């Protein structure tokens, strides 16, 4: 048989209801403690001598769609312990029920804390008002900060990476426990000294997964020399692909010579292409000036100081990475190109009709984008000698040389064949990158050293030298099951939390909302 519901069951444990009234807007419940005495906060001795009473107003969980206010009849006791410095003290309650000076019960404070963790300031305050828990956004954030700093179990396997406070201006560091799959710490910057200081206090760490940057690698080597460093596999494969794109950029003059496009006829260019071609001519003048100074023995820093260009641009020019003429921007059709290719092969070649079908699938672009794609596709199938005179961008050439031949049009196939026949060094670089990707996927550790020696004599020598310098971490990435993918996922979540707070949250609030939520 179930027990009858008593009014005292609705208030926190340790209290009994004296009176309860409803004034229409809220429910006011008068309660008092059920215990006879209380322990002195100074000496801990129990006292039952009541000196006086006063009324304490406390918020509690809502009841029947109305907010609840508790009027607690609090007592003041007299401490009779001779050596105690305090003579009068207010009775104390269990910290899990009501803490000193609190305006909310512990169970209501827990709800406020969870709302602040989940939604932040203003959204949580708006939602709390609907739950009949009136609380301001400042109070919510104050509760989150006060209850932050949850202890974490000492990790053995961590992932470390940087994240952007503001892109290209300010960065922080996130550290994740890869075994428990949760973030454990945010650092205010990505300086190696900051990471080294934190890692120095965690000597139990045995494996550190990180990105390809050298800053974290140096910090780990100094703070945890016994730990195994693991380079992130995704970054390794992305860096290899980027190395091939750089190789194509270095070889653009040879590419244009291979397909017979060393001379550009400005009369045949569109208005947008003419602007790009004029920019290319200006870049060529800058490139010639910087290359001439480099041949005279000037350093990169000196060239940057004399010309006013950044060291990054000077470095790209010396590496031959600024010889591209036409740079094609990514189209809004990129995500829909596989579907358009299927429709084109099936015989549906009317641009307007393709746009109507694509719009029904959720495409937000205009009809002109689709009709221009259809026109370019129609022209690309007319492969003649003149079609080879147009040289795509380096990024496009890199894509055409690495995708399957069955996905290329006739003109694209002829273009790739001309490049492969005229620039065999690019074919070698492509094969080396593909071999590196296969080595990562199949965990073929024995092939790493021969690959490095072969790649050092190719167009991707810079990437090969980087792999050789970071050989231990790359070897661990190939053979180990750990990677930094979890950390990248937590960075995505961190960005969501930061944007929910309009990017104005300090690191303690971000730490609380990202780390303490677990």
From TrEMBL:
Residues 158-258, 373-513 form the Transposase IS204/IS1001/IS1096/IS1165 DDE domain. Residues 39-80 form the Transposase IS204/IS1001/IS1096/IS1165 zinc-finger domain. Transmembrane segments: none annotated. It comes from the Bacteria. This is Mobile element protein. It comes from Asticcacaulis excentricus.
